[in-house]
Amino acid sequence: MQFTRTEMLPPRAPPVSQSGALKWVRENLFSSWLNATLTILSGLVVYSLVKLSAPWLLHAVWNANSLSECRSVIAANFGPDAGGACWAMIRARWYQWIFGFYPPEVYWRPILNFGLLFVAMAPILFSDNLRGSVKLVGVVAALTILGLALAQGSWGLFALLSAIMLVSLAVAAWAPRYLLIATVLYPFATVWLLWGGSIWGPLLALAGFALIVPVYRALSPRFGLVVATTGGVIVASLWWFVLQGYVADALQTAIPLGIVAVESDKFGGFLLAFLIGVSSISISLPIGILLALGRQSNMVLIKALSVGFIEFVRGVPLITMLFTASLLLQYFLPPRVQFDLILRVIILVTLFSAAYNAEVVRGGLAALPKGQSEAADALGLDYWQAQRLIIMPQALKVSIPGIVSTFIGLFKDTTLVSFVGLQDPLRGITSIVRADIDWKGIYWEPYIFVAAIFFVACYGMSRYSLYLERKLGTDHR
Amino acid sequence: MNKTLFLGTLAAGAMLAGIAAAGTLDDVKARGVLNCGANTGLTGFGAPDANGDYQGFDVDLCKAVAAAVLGDQSKVKYVPTTGETRFTALASGEVDLLVRNSTWTFSRDTDLKLDFVAVNYYDGQGFLVRKDLGVTSAKELGGATICIQTGTTTELNLADYFKSNSLEYTPVTVVDDADAQRQFLAGACDAFTTDASGLASARATLPNPDDYVVLPEIISKEPLGPVVRHGDNNWGDIVRWTYYALVEAEEKGITKANVEEMAASSTDPEVRRLLGVEGEQGKFLGLDNDWAKRAIAANGNYGEIFETNLGESTPIKLARGLNALWSQGGLQYAPPFR
Amino acid sequence: MSGATDLPKPAFRLSSLIYDTRYRFITIQVIVLILALLFTAWLVENVRSNLALKGKDIDFAFLWRRGGYDIGQHLIPYTNDSTHGRAAMVGLINTLVVAVLASILSTVLGVFLGVLRLSKNWIISRLVGVYVEIFRNVPLLLWIVLVAVVFSETAPAPKDFKLVNGVAKASMSLWDSVAITNRSTNVPFPLLDRPLPAIVTPWFTLPTSLLAILALIAGSIWAVLRLSRRATAVQEATGMRPVTWWQSLAILFAPMLAALYALGFHLDYPALKGFNFQGGLSFDHAFTSLTLALTLYYAAITAEIVRSGIQAISRGQTEASFALGLRPGRTMSLIILPQALRVIIPPMISQWVSLTKDTSLGIAVSYLDLRGTLGGITLNQTGRELECMLLMMLIYLIISLIISALANVYNTSVKLKER
Question: Residue A128, CB half-sphere, CA atoms under 13 Å: how many?
């Protein structure tokens, strides 16, 4: 008697412990005693954190006019002992965290400025990624238009400004090369938009750069790049520091064109943080490149000067640089010359970040194979041609992630300016809001709010930097 | 992003940079704005409100000077200063006038090269404690933790006081008033010490003012006053006499409301000189003859300014005390206008 | 065929200073030197005329005058009669204490977190990831302020520890030895009943007892090492390792216990007296929150450095180690970490430098470090901005340069071993 199975048995499902969620849990959470302990421990940590904060967050109040009102609402709804977040304070004062004491009727200016910042940066940040650039400009345009709609202002103005953003989007999508024009014009636009006043000052300052070009053209065939650039800068400086003031005044009386001027002591909050961060990092980049080249130079003196500067700046805390701006800079300027405190802080922070950028760029230069500069030499390029055409484009590309991290660090460090009396979002504005008798005694909410905004901004930037690193990583292979 | 931004900012800097001329008065007139060093967090003396407009006893003196010099009390730019940065801001020319609860001391007047032109508030250092601490005298504070604002005379007075009474204490040195109050409120220190007026201001803004008490001891003399740079005597005179004009106005019963009427109808020769109806007093200061009238019209006389910012009707509820007019038993006394 | 010959080099002419690359660098350097000198002269002249205008001078004599203010935390003797110079010294020591303590703690925590970040345990690696991102992307200043607020707002006041009708609102933790109040953390402090006489000099006091105990510990460790080396020698000779653990324990602890007993060692517990806890060791919250915030923040950064350092080691190393039968833990400690260290150490050192500089943020919680004393109260009371600021920057610079110099020494020594 023989029994042979003629049909195949249907495959059985794997044991419960070897499939689905259970398998995942076993492999990822309880693969060993140590792991199981860790899992349970971290579960406990998460549980206690949630237990600690959940009631507080759940009892949040969004509508109230003072802290005591908040407290009474919470007490009425959740019992006398319940604690709860009072976000009503953010609702009442959010504009001060964003703009400081900037006049509310011209909030559109910083908002537009913020939008244009990304338009100006898109061609640099996404140099060979059209879709990324369009996406960025699109998102920013939408946000800007939303912000403008929320700010006070006439419909005509709103339409005009939205049109500007939409045109930028269109340019980004169909003629990306022309976006670089925005990049070049942006610095002048930003000074004019933020500080206001006559349009002639920034326009004529821009004209100064136009002066450099013919001088450079005239001098460069005979004397080379360095002399020609120096000559151009000297001529332009003469224009800026001697003539421009008179011409601007004359033009302003003849054709008065301008917007309401805003004193820089009205700047505060995240507007101030972005202003200091963005202007310092962008001004410091060229200085940093020169310093990095100086550090690599084989001319002893130049190398010594660069190394001395870089090491000095990197050796002292930022806060001493800020105190230098507020207490010491006046000693080093000619008697009776006075700068705005914000400007002094920007100058010192620029010097500070220049040293850090120099080290980042030096890293980029070191990453280049020596063959690149040798090849440039072999082609008969002189030093500056080699730097401009061969070395720098490659070195800078490698350095961008480092520069972005420098910027993230700098942006976080802008909170330190409160120690010299500027209204940063973290301590400056928070203490002003807390000085209000309605909101006295509120601690957690302002910090959480400020931390959240910083987190979003910095996390976004670090993601971008990671994306770049990954892209560069694949480029090399 | 390249050099353009750098030079653009430089150009902007050149626009913003003011090259000062020799005299502060000429500077202020040329600028059209008075730069006034102010406190940022002392309710009643100087603090910005929700719109960023500065209010307070000290701030009103800035406004009076601006009214006297520029004819408009709103032409003041308030430069926020901390206890640490204030004198440097003045010495460097960043502010023309510092009215920020600054104590007139010998070394500040001589070594720091500042000029205190008047005393607009006679004060003394005291202690604020929680009632339930059960302390009734500063002598019982042995072993206590005490919050002090740094950069002031208070830390030196405190060290001297505790030393002369052979008591121990733990100092908590805080950068600004607001933070010191926060720490005190949170219980990080047993006592908060600063000028008695500041204590009253701090107490007024605490959630339950009645739970706190100011101890009776006043451990120092703190004459607070407006400060100008050493060496510019004309500017010092302007600030000094603007202040005295406010005091004199109170003595003569000139108020914000009746200043025009007094100018028109008063027969008192001193009032007529003060309000510019007679004589050429403005010219000696480099101003026009209506300067004092404008200063008084801005926010009223000394008494009115005191009442609106610090007096019984405000949450701070300070009594005039030493700051009453000499004719009412106080120390405020204006030299004669003649 | 003759090879190409070099063109004869033209002799030096004046125009070579501009056109000949061999000589042009001299011209450029001379120009730069002149510009640098002019710039320096401009600065010096500005300083001179500004000082003259303000009627000031540069004079460091104030460092030897009476300071007149008190400092809560001072590790060397200090009263308000001490000089400004000594106050600066106290501040410098306070800076260094926080810097060293936070560096050590953040490194330990950071390495731990960095390893956990790569753990196969899903929840652990995610949790650590969240921690790292949150701490890295929010300003350090906020963490310092926040930690300080947590302490001052949630901890009980000292008077809550008082017994009222037999009940206290708060009680001490860890078997009544540690008291966390809203102003300080109080822990027991070891005291000696019969200490050795200390050597007192005007500038510092030499803690002889402490030095003696340290010497004893060093001696014991040396003896244990000798013992273990001898055991290794025996093992190599005979193949049998003698049992030494009880000898090691005895050598390590017996002399120390004997010495402590001889010196009359006991713990001084904090107790509530008057307003505050007295006795024991009291850490200000300014100190605790600054150290804690620096530790947490830099641990996040260290974790990232460690993670990328470990990931830089090729996967083959792990696989080879597994193939040899090493467990994951030993693979990490014996194979991966030693190699990763070479990648990890250089960025770690620059983190230590930044941490040291960031101790200056103690200003936010009123910690009297170098900036708080020399660059804060002294600067204000004397009005000598130029002198105080320059001196302070110089000291910070020297500290940073010392750390960097040590880093370079280490880097060179690591490099030599590379082939």
Answer: 5
Predicted pLDDT at C138? 93
Strands lying side by side in the sheet with C184-187: C179-180, C184-187, C281-284
Q: Is C369 on the interface with B (CB under 8 A)?
A: no
CATH, residue B296: 3.40.190.10
Domain-embedded: residue B259: yes
CB-CB under 8 Å, C141 with A416: yes
How far, in Å, CA of C336 to CA of C330, rounded?
9
Residue that has been written with the tokens 């537009």 in this structure: A112
Q: Which domain, by its residues, includes C222?
A: 189-268
Q: What is the structure's pLDDT at C5?
A: 63
Which residues from chain A sit within 8 angstroms of residue B89, using beta carbons? 326
Average pLDDT, chain B: 83
Phi and psi (nearest 5°) for B223?
A: -75, 115
- Do B196 and B216 touch, CB atoms closer than 8 A? no
* pLDDT at residue A239, as a whole number: 83
Domain with B54 in it = 22-122+224-328
pLDDT computed for residue C1 by the predictor: 46
Query: Is the minimum CB–CB distance between B12 and chain A shorter than 8 Å?
Result: yes
**Is B150's CB within 8 Å of C377's CB?**
yes
Q: Which two tokens stand for residue B289?
A: 């003859």
C366 → closest Cβ in B145, B174, B187: B174
Optimal mutation site among B108, B158, B170, interface C, most CBs of chain C within 10 A: B170
Number of domains in chain B: 2
How many percent of chain A have pLDDT more than 70?
98
Could you give the number of structural domains in chain C?
Answer: 1
Secondary structure tally for chain A: helices H, strands E: 20, 3
Contact A284, A360 (CB under 8 A): no
CA dihedral A284, A289, A292, A293 (to 10 degrees): -150
Is beta strand B144-149 parallel, antiparallel or unpaired with respect to B191-195?
Answer: parallel
Burial label, C85 (beta-carbon count in 10 A; 0-12, 13-18, 19+): middle
B161, B191, B220 - which closes a domain: B220
List the structure tokens of B138: 């500063």
At C204, the pLDDT band (50, 70, 90 cuts) reads low
Neighbours of C, requiring at least 3 CB pairs below 8 Å, are: A, B
B81 with B46, same domain: the answer is yes
Contact B8 A188 (CB under 8 A): yes
Interface of B with A in 207-226 (CB under 8 A): 207
Give chain A's mean pLDDT: 84
Q: Where are the domains of chain A?
A: 264-424+452-477
| Burial (CB count within 10 angstroms: exposed 0-12, middle 13-18, buried 19+), residue C257 | exposed
Whether C363 shows a pLDDT value over 60: the answer reads: yes
Q: Which residues contact C412 (CB under 8 A, 6 or more apart)?
A: none
Give the integer Cα–Cα distance in Å for A417 and A273. 9
Same domain, B250 and B182: no
Q: Do B317 and B172 lie in a common domain?
A: no
Residue B39 lies in a domain: yes
Query: Is residue C295 one of the residues assigned to a domain?
Result: no
Is B216 found in the same domain as B73? Answer: no
Asked whether residue B194 is assigned to any structural domain, the reply reads: yes
List, as ranges, residues 30-89 from B with C-beta within 8 Å of A: 40-41, 43, 47-52, 77-82, 85, 88-89
- Subunit contact B175:C285, Cβ cutoff 8 A: no
In a domain, C223, yes or no: yes
CATH superfamily, domain at A264-424+452-477: MetI-like (1.10.3720.10)
pLDDT tens across C41-52, in order? 999 999 998 888
pLDDT higher than threshold 80 for residue B85: no
Domain boundary among B220, B255, B289: B220
In this prediction the ipTM stands at 0.86
Inform me whether the pLDDT recorded for A18 exceeds 80. no
